[in-house]
Amino acid sequence: MPRRQTVPLPDDPVALHAPRLFWAFGWYLRWFFWRNFHAVRVSGARIPDVPADRPLMIYANHPSWWDPALFMLLASTTLRDRTSFGPMEAESLGRYRLFRKFGVYGIDTATQLGAARFLAASLRILSRPGTALWVTSEGHFTDPRVRPVRLRPGLAHLARRLPDAVIVPLAIEYPFWNERKPEALFRFGRALEAGEGRSLSVAAWNVLLEQRLAETMDALAVDAMSRDPGRFSRVLRGRVGVGGVYDLWRRLVAAAGLRRPELAHEPRREPGS
Predict the structure, then answer these.
(1) Mean pLDDT throughout 229-245?
(2) Checking phi first, is residue 8 left (phi over 0); if not, alpha (psi -120 to 50) or beta?
(3) H helix count then E strand count, the chain
(4) In angstroms, rounded to a whole number, what is the distance separating the alpha carbons of residues 205 and 153?
(5) Dist. CA 30–CA 161, nearest whole Å
(6) Which of 124-138, 146-160, 207-221, 254-268 has the least mean pLDDT?
(7) Which spans in 37-180 are helix H?
(8) Strand 192-193 relative to strand 104-107: parallel, antiparallel, unpaired?
(9) Which helix (H) or strand (E) holds 260?
(10) Residue 85: CB partners within 8 Å, gap ≥ 6?
(11) Helix 19-36 crosses helix 67-77 at what angle (to 10 degrees)?
């Protein structure tokens, strides 16, 4: 089935995207997450392989300011074969204008015009092979323990218009475990084939998307509450230690004894160590 084409937009996110700048920013994000987190970890399987000629949509809960940065980190580490895009509130994007070069486009979720802008831009993006759309479908910051999960209907509208799309739920949490820095945890859920729900209404699609995301969030919560790194695969190592003078002292003591300093609060071997 041919893809639905859309009229080019004045601030077309496809035209504004700068791949080289995005990959350079991906390396900056590796440092940024290393500096601010103990580790970035994935629970369960990695994102499924999807043929490049099929639209890929990844929708997530929205627990924190960190979510767009995590999307870009994952796009540059776990989904490197696709060009990634994602919407952001236009007011917020005005404060991070550089993000336009990274595939981020502004929307106004409070108006019908803003909803139409989201659909037009998203259809424009997904009409191109090898692209991916990342969406925080709750639309506002929400604690990951809140149930039932409630999503805005934009993704359901896209699912009905793109019957060849693959839609993957993504659960995110940022808990503190046993170190000074928090963990960045995520889990991909069971993919949905949009074609299988072609007869569903927008409301029915929204319920299905909510249920699949809640299922994924519940599975991540079980692993997060265990505080067991063995349940995860580490995507990125972060910082350990208390910091400041105390860590400097421990480094000096270790150097005097010709041994490696151990700065973690609870030293343990982890997968990938």
Answers:
(1) 80
(2) beta
(3) 8, 9
(4) 9
(5) 35
(6) 254-268
(7) 67-77, 90-93, 112-126, 154-161
(8) unpaired
(9) none
(10) 13, 14, 17, 103, 104, 105, 122, 125, 131, 132, 133, 134
(11) 120
Domain boundaries, the chain: 13-239, 240-273
Query: Angle 200-48-208 (CA atoms, 0-180°, nearest 5)?
Result: 25
pLDDT in tens, 37-65: 999 999 998 898 899 999 999 999 999 99
Give 13-239's CATH code, choosing from 3.30.70, 2.40.128, 3.40.1130, 2.60.120: 3.40.1130
Q: pLDDT at residue 257 above 60?
A: no
Q: What percent of the chain has pLDDT over 70?
A: 84
The two beta strands, 131-136 and 83-89, are parallel
195 secondary structure, DSSP code: G
Q: How does DSSP assign 1-48, residue by residue?
A: -PPPP-PPPTT-HHHH--HHHHHHHHHHHHHHHHHH-SEEEEESSPPP
Query: Which one, of 173, 210, 169, lies nearest residue 66 by Cα?
Result: 173
CB distance 39 to 268 below 8 Å: no
Identity of the amino acid at 260: R
**Helix H or strand E encompassing 203:** helix 202-226
